[in-house]
Amino acid sequence: MDKLPISVTICTYNEEQDIGDCLKKVFANHPAEVIVVDGGSTDRTVEIATAAGARVIQPGVKGLSSQRQAGIDAATQPYVAIIDGDDHVEPDFLATLLKEMQDYGYDALLGREVAFEPKTYWEKAMGSTNYGITFTEKPVDTNMVGRPSLYRAEAIKHCGFDSFFNGVGDEDTDLSIRMEIAGFRQGIGTGLTHRQQTPSFRGIVKKFVKYGRGDARIVYKYPFKAKNLIYHLAIRYPFVRGGKAIARGDWKYWPFYAMYGWIRFFTMLPELVKLLFVRPNHGPYPAKVRG
Predict the structure, then answer these.
(1) Fewest Cβ atoms closer than 10 Å to its Cβ: which of 99, 142, 167, 276?
(2) What angle do CA 180, 181, 185 make, to 5 degrees?
Protein backbone atom coordinates (compact mmCIF):
# COMPACT_ATOMS: atom_id res chain seq x y z
CA MET A 1 0.00 0.00 0.00
CA ASP A 2 1.27 3.47 -0.88
CA LYS A 3 2.28 5.67 2.02
CA LEU A 4 0.05 8.62 2.83
CA PRO A 5 1.81 12.02 2.43
CA ILE A 6 1.54 12.68 6.16
CA SER A 7 4.05 13.33 8.94
CA VAL A 8 2.61 12.08 12.22
CA THR A 9 3.99 13.86 15.29
CA ILE A 10 3.57 12.42 18.78
CA CYS A 11 4.82 14.25 21.88
CA THR A 12 5.77 12.01 24.77
CA TYR A 13 6.88 12.09 28.37
CA ASN A 14 6.97 8.78 30.25
CA GLU A 15 4.42 7.08 27.99
CA GLU A 16 5.81 3.53 28.13
CA GLN A 17 2.41 2.04 28.99
CA ASP A 18 0.64 3.48 25.94
CA ILE A 19 3.21 4.40 23.28
CA GLY A 20 3.69 0.88 21.89
CA ASP A 21 0.01 0.36 21.05
CA CYS A 22 -0.33 3.97 19.93
CA LEU A 23 2.48 3.54 17.39
CA LYS A 24 1.14 0.17 16.25
CA LYS A 25 -2.18 1.82 15.41
CA VAL A 26 -0.46 4.80 13.76
CA PHE A 27 1.76 2.65 11.53
CA ALA A 28 -1.33 0.65 10.50
CA ASN A 29 -2.53 3.92 8.91
CA HIS A 30 0.51 3.91 6.56
CA PRO A 31 1.83 7.47 7.02
CA ALA A 32 5.05 8.38 5.24
CA GLU A 33 6.68 9.59 8.45
CA VAL A 34 6.22 9.09 12.20
CA ILE A 35 8.06 11.46 14.54
CA VAL A 36 8.12 11.02 18.30
CA VAL A 37 9.15 14.20 20.12
CA ASP A 38 10.27 13.13 23.57
CA GLY A 39 10.39 15.58 26.45
CA GLY A 40 13.00 13.76 28.51
CA SER A 41 11.28 10.53 29.50
CA THR A 42 12.89 8.56 32.31
CA ASP A 43 11.13 5.30 31.47
CA ARG A 44 11.31 3.08 28.34
CA THR A 45 9.33 5.42 26.06
CA VAL A 46 12.26 6.24 23.75
CA GLU A 47 13.40 2.61 23.57
CA ILE A 48 9.89 1.39 22.67
CA ALA A 49 9.32 4.14 20.09
CA THR A 50 12.68 3.51 18.41
CA ALA A 51 12.08 -0.24 18.26
CA ALA A 52 8.66 0.38 16.70
CA GLY A 53 10.28 2.26 13.83
CA ALA A 54 9.50 5.85 14.75
CA ARG A 55 11.96 8.67 14.22
CA VAL A 56 12.65 9.87 17.77
CA ILE A 57 13.90 13.38 18.43
CA GLN A 58 14.78 14.86 21.81
CA PRO A 59 15.02 18.61 21.22
CA GLY A 60 15.79 19.41 24.86
CA VAL A 61 12.87 21.83 25.13
CA LYS A 62 10.48 21.79 28.06
CA GLY A 63 6.78 22.32 27.66
CA LEU A 64 4.22 20.74 25.35
CA SER A 65 3.86 23.79 23.13
CA SER A 66 7.59 23.84 22.38
CA GLN A 67 7.60 20.07 21.84
CA ARG A 68 4.76 20.36 19.33
CA GLN A 69 6.65 23.11 17.51
CA ALA A 70 9.75 20.91 17.33
CA GLY A 71 7.59 18.19 15.78
CA ILE A 72 6.15 20.35 13.04
CA ASP A 73 9.59 21.86 12.36
CA ALA A 74 10.91 18.33 11.78
CA ALA A 75 7.98 17.24 9.58
CA THR A 76 8.78 16.80 5.89
CA GLN A 77 5.40 15.83 4.38
CA PRO A 78 2.70 18.12 2.92
CA TYR A 79 0.30 17.15 5.75
CA VAL A 80 1.02 17.01 9.49
CA ALA A 81 -0.96 14.96 12.02
CA ILE A 82 -0.80 15.66 15.74
CA ILE A 83 -1.59 12.57 17.80
CA ASP A 84 -1.13 11.99 21.54
CA GLY A 85 0.69 9.03 23.06
CA ASP A 86 -2.53 7.75 24.62
CA ASP A 87 -4.47 7.74 21.33
CA HIS A 88 -5.50 4.46 19.72
CA VAL A 89 -6.55 5.54 16.22
CA GLU A 90 -8.67 3.46 13.88
CA PRO A 91 -6.87 1.93 10.83
CA ASP A 92 -8.52 4.44 8.46
CA PHE A 93 -8.12 7.49 10.72
CA LEU A 94 -5.54 9.33 8.62
CA ALA A 95 -6.95 8.31 5.23
CA THR A 96 -10.42 9.47 6.28
CA LEU A 97 -9.26 12.89 7.47
CA LEU A 98 -6.98 13.35 4.45
CA LYS A 99 -9.81 12.62 1.99
CA GLU A 100 -12.21 14.90 3.85
CA MET A 101 -9.63 17.66 4.01
CA GLN A 102 -9.05 17.46 0.26
CA ASP A 103 -12.72 17.02 -0.68
CA TYR A 104 -14.07 19.80 1.54
CA GLY A 105 -11.19 22.28 1.37
CA TYR A 106 -10.14 22.33 5.02
CA ASP A 107 -6.75 23.38 6.34
CA ALA A 108 -7.21 21.58 9.68
CA LEU A 109 -9.49 18.75 10.77
CA LEU A 110 -10.10 17.40 14.26
CA GLY A 111 -10.82 13.69 14.61
CA ARG A 112 -13.73 12.19 16.52
CA GLU A 113 -12.94 10.81 19.96
CA VAL A 114 -14.35 8.14 22.27
CA ALA A 115 -12.90 6.80 25.51
CA PHE A 116 -10.54 3.82 25.34
CA GLU A 117 -11.81 0.98 27.55
CA PRO A 118 -13.29 3.31 30.21
CA LYS A 119 -13.71 1.83 33.68
CA THR A 120 -14.07 4.66 36.20
CA TYR A 121 -16.76 7.34 36.36
CA TRP A 122 -14.19 9.94 35.37
CA GLU A 123 -13.03 8.07 32.28
CA LYS A 124 -16.63 7.53 31.17
CA ALA A 125 -17.56 11.14 31.88
CA MET A 126 -14.64 12.51 29.85
CA GLY A 127 -15.56 10.09 27.08
CA SER A 128 -19.13 11.42 27.13
CA THR A 129 -17.85 15.00 26.97
CA ASN A 130 -15.51 14.44 24.05
CA TYR A 131 -18.07 12.36 22.17
CA GLY A 132 -20.56 15.20 22.52
CA ILE A 133 -18.03 17.71 21.21
CA THR A 134 -16.58 15.74 18.30
CA PHE A 135 -19.36 13.45 17.03
CA THR A 136 -20.37 14.20 13.48
CA GLU A 137 -21.45 12.11 10.51
CA LYS A 138 -19.79 14.43 7.98
CA PRO A 139 -17.19 17.21 8.17
CA VAL A 140 -18.43 20.41 9.82
CA ASP A 141 -16.82 23.78 10.43
CA THR A 142 -15.41 24.69 13.84
CA ASN A 143 -13.15 27.35 15.35
CA MET A 144 -11.49 24.90 17.74
CA VAL A 145 -9.27 21.99 16.67
CA GLY A 146 -7.63 20.01 19.43
CA ARG A 147 -6.14 16.60 18.85
CA PRO A 148 -5.85 14.14 17.26
CA SER A 149 -5.88 16.29 14.19
CA LEU A 150 -4.59 16.70 10.65
CA TYR A 151 -3.25 19.94 9.13
CA ARG A 152 -1.97 21.17 5.83
CA ALA A 153 1.72 21.61 6.55
CA GLU A 154 1.80 25.10 5.05
CA ALA A 155 -0.97 26.21 7.42
CA ILE A 156 0.39 24.82 10.67
CA LYS A 157 3.96 25.85 9.85
CA HIS A 158 2.72 29.39 9.14
CA CYS A 159 0.87 29.67 12.45
CA GLY A 160 2.99 27.49 14.74
CA PHE A 161 2.85 27.07 18.51
CA ASP A 162 3.60 29.74 21.11
CA SER A 163 5.99 28.82 23.94
CA PHE A 164 3.97 31.24 26.10
CA PHE A 165 1.69 28.25 26.76
CA ASN A 166 4.41 25.91 28.01
CA GLY A 167 3.50 24.44 31.39
CA VAL A 168 -0.21 25.25 31.07
CA GLY A 169 -3.04 24.01 28.90
CA ASP A 170 -4.64 25.57 25.82
CA GLU A 171 -1.72 25.41 23.38
CA ASP A 172 -4.19 23.87 20.93
CA THR A 173 -6.72 26.65 21.59
CA ASP A 174 -4.00 29.19 20.87
CA LEU A 175 -3.14 27.43 17.61
CA SER A 176 -6.80 27.43 16.56
CA ILE A 177 -7.08 31.17 17.20
CA ARG A 178 -3.89 31.72 15.21
CA MET A 179 -5.35 29.65 12.36
CA GLU A 180 -8.53 31.73 12.54
CA ILE A 181 -6.58 35.02 12.44
CA ALA A 182 -4.58 33.79 9.44
CA GLY A 183 -7.79 32.90 7.62
CA PHE A 184 -7.38 29.11 7.49
CA ARG A 185 -10.48 26.89 7.48
CA GLN A 186 -10.92 24.48 10.39
CA GLY A 187 -13.36 21.62 10.90
CA ILE A 188 -14.25 18.36 12.60
CA GLY A 189 -13.94 15.22 10.50
CA THR A 190 -15.10 11.63 10.95
CA GLY A 191 -11.78 9.83 11.57
CA LEU A 192 -12.03 8.09 14.95
CA THR A 193 -9.65 7.62 17.88
CA HIS A 194 -10.06 5.79 21.17
CA ARG A 195 -8.25 7.80 23.84
CA GLN A 196 -7.09 6.72 27.27
CA GLN A 197 -8.77 9.07 29.74
CA THR A 198 -7.74 10.33 33.18
CA PRO A 199 -9.12 7.76 35.66
CA SER A 200 -9.25 9.62 38.98
CA PHE A 201 -10.97 12.63 40.57
CA ARG A 202 -7.63 14.05 41.64
CA GLY A 203 -6.22 13.70 38.13
CA ILE A 204 -9.28 15.37 36.59
CA VAL A 205 -9.10 18.35 38.96
CA LYS A 206 -5.39 18.74 38.25
CA LYS A 207 -6.11 18.71 34.50
CA PHE A 208 -8.90 21.31 34.78
CA VAL A 209 -6.73 23.60 36.90
CA LYS A 210 -4.02 23.39 34.24
CA TYR A 211 -6.57 24.23 31.54
CA GLY A 212 -7.79 27.16 33.61
CA ARG A 213 -4.30 28.59 33.74
CA GLY A 214 -4.13 28.24 29.97
CA ASP A 215 -7.53 29.93 29.65
CA ALA A 216 -6.12 32.94 31.50
CA ARG A 217 -3.31 33.17 28.97
CA ILE A 218 -5.81 33.00 26.11
CA VAL A 219 -7.72 35.98 27.55
CA TYR A 220 -4.48 37.85 28.24
CA LYS A 221 -3.15 37.29 24.72
CA TYR A 222 -6.48 37.68 22.92
CA PRO A 223 -8.68 40.11 24.91
CA PHE A 224 -11.29 40.03 22.12
CA LYS A 225 -11.90 36.35 23.01
CA ALA A 226 -12.68 37.06 26.69
CA LYS A 227 -16.47 37.28 26.37
CA ASN A 228 -16.73 34.06 24.37
CA LEU A 229 -14.40 32.17 26.69
CA ILE A 230 -16.24 33.28 29.83
CA TYR A 231 -19.52 32.12 28.28
CA HIS A 232 -17.88 28.86 27.20
CA LEU A 233 -16.72 28.02 30.73
CA ALA A 234 -19.52 29.44 32.85
CA ILE A 235 -22.51 28.60 30.65
CA ARG A 236 -21.79 26.36 27.65
CA TYR A 237 -20.05 23.52 29.50
CA PRO A 238 -22.44 23.10 32.45
CA PHE A 239 -25.73 24.03 30.80
CA VAL A 240 -25.53 23.69 27.01
CA ARG A 241 -23.24 20.68 26.73
CA GLY A 242 -24.42 19.30 30.06
CA GLY A 243 -28.02 19.69 28.91
CA LYS A 244 -27.30 17.82 25.69
CA ALA A 245 -25.69 15.03 27.73
CA ILE A 246 -28.86 14.76 29.82
CA ALA A 247 -30.96 14.68 26.63
CA ARG A 248 -29.01 11.71 25.27
CA GLY A 249 -29.31 9.83 28.58
CA ASP A 250 -25.93 10.71 30.14
CA TRP A 251 -27.54 12.66 33.00
CA LYS A 252 -25.20 11.18 35.62
CA TYR A 253 -22.29 13.01 34.00
CA TRP A 254 -23.81 16.49 34.42
CA PRO A 255 -21.69 17.20 37.56
CA PHE A 256 -18.61 16.47 35.46
CA TYR A 257 -19.67 19.01 32.84
CA ALA A 258 -20.15 21.60 35.59
CA MET A 259 -16.70 20.81 37.00
CA TYR A 260 -15.17 21.07 33.54
CA GLY A 261 -16.38 24.62 33.12
CA TRP A 262 -16.41 26.03 36.63
CA ILE A 263 -13.04 24.74 37.90
CA ARG A 264 -11.42 26.22 34.82
CA PHE A 265 -13.34 29.48 35.23
CA PHE A 266 -12.43 30.00 38.88
CA THR A 267 -8.82 29.01 38.20
CA MET A 268 -8.65 31.44 35.29
CA LEU A 269 -9.65 34.54 37.26
CA PRO A 270 -6.74 34.82 39.76
CA GLU A 271 -4.29 33.64 37.11
CA LEU A 272 -5.45 36.40 34.79
CA VAL A 273 -5.00 39.02 37.51
CA LYS A 274 -1.45 37.79 38.00
CA LEU A 275 -0.73 38.02 34.27
CA LEU A 276 -2.13 41.54 34.06
CA PHE A 277 0.14 42.57 36.93
CA VAL A 278 3.33 40.87 35.63
CA ARG A 279 2.71 41.55 31.91
CA PRO A 280 4.77 38.70 30.40
CA ASN A 281 5.53 38.64 26.68
CA HIS A 282 3.75 36.27 24.33
CA GLY A 283 4.26 35.32 20.70
CA PRO A 284 3.04 37.62 17.88
CA TYR A 285 -0.18 37.19 15.94
CA PRO A 286 0.32 35.44 12.58
CA ALA A 287 0.02 37.30 9.30
CA LYS A 288 -3.31 36.92 7.49
CA VAL A 289 -3.09 34.57 4.52
CA ARG A 290 -6.69 34.21 3.38
CA GLY A 291 -9.98 36.04 3.62
Answers:
(1) 276
(2) 30
